[in-house]
Amino acid sequence: MKPLISFGPFTLYFFGLMIAVGAIVGTAFFLRQAKKRGLNDKSLLDIALYSLIGGIIGARIIFVLVYNPAYYLSDPIKIFFVHQGGLSIHGGLIGGLLVGYILLKKHKIPVWETLDIVAPALILAQGISRIGCDVFGGPISDAIPWGMNIRGEYLHPAQAYEFILDYILFGYLWLRLKANKKYHGQLFLHYFIGYMIIRGIVEFSRVNPTILGGISVSHIMSLLGIVAASIVVYFRKKQGVITKNQQHLTQKDLITTIVLVTGLILASLIIYYIVQG
């Protein structure tokens, strides 16, 4: 990971910084949208923070158990060295959702309505956080201008592919947040399926242990996530929970979203290539 500043034995890494920035921006976006929609509960900030902690713990547990268990079992203390990297986004989603669900139920806050507001905030935070990831892309021809020269080898900027797709999904979800929905939870389920697809696509540009051909563990986990979410979509539709009509999307909404997403992509690419290149 790229170190930024050292304070004695402590080092601030670029990845950690971007995770913090993503979490702050995503949480602020979520709380603002929740307030607009009458979910201005004082408990939401606490729930968001505890869900973030749950996400980090879940991400670490799945990474240790699935990706490199032998390495950590040989020296268990390394499990706690999160600052050195090693987080699974699939585990992060499971951990964060589990904590969030429990706390929302405890405080009697509508779960699916809240998750619909969480969806665009969450993918925005994930996109920003990905800027700080180290370059783990597969080999690429040096004739391709966007390749990353890492120790003399040109690699796919896989993290850039991912945050670009994340921002596009964010734009879609933000627009849908302002439009009519067929049932509570629709946006969150669209987010979940959309992100699993993004992970599956980006995985082809990375170098990871494969199970069969070019299929990796991450592909399998993403596929399982898509299947599980699709089953939930089926039952949510069957329940026929229809929301009331909301505001109609305008041309201004569309233009504003396109400008914002384009700005996020350009700014993130500039920072990514300056720091990681």
Percent strand equals 5-15%
The assigned structural class equals mainly alpha
Mean pLDDT comes to 85
Q: How many DSSP H or I helices?
A: 9
**Shape field:** globular
How would you spell out the order of helices and strands? EEHHHHHEEHHEEHH
Number of strands: 6
**Rg for CA atoms:** 19 Å
Report, as a whole number of angstroms, the end-to-end distance: 13 Å
Helix content: 55-70%
Q: Quick one: biggest sheet?
A: 2 strands, antiparallel
Question: What do these coordinates show?
Answer:
With 277 residues, this protein is mainly alpha-helical. The chain is 65% helix and 7% strand. It has nine helices and six strands, in the order ββαααααββααββαα. The protein has helices at 14-36, 43-67, 69-74, 89-106, 111-130, 158-178, 186-203, 217-239, 251-276, and strands spanning 3-7, 10-13, 148-150, 153-155, 210-212, 215-216. The strands form three sheets. Strands 1-2 form a two-stranded antiparallel sheet. A two-stranded antiparallel sheet has the order 3-4. α1 runs antiparallel to α5 (111-130) and α5 packs antiparallel against α6. The longest helix has 26 residues, at 251-276. The protein starts with a strand and ends with a helix. The model has no long low-confidence stretch (mean pLDDT 85).
Task: Give a short overview.
The chain has helices at residues 14-36, 43-67, 69-74, 89-106, 111-130, 158-178, 186-203, 217-239, 251-276; strands spanning 3-7, 10-13, 148-150, 153-155, 210-212, 215-216. By secondary structure, the chain is mostly helical.
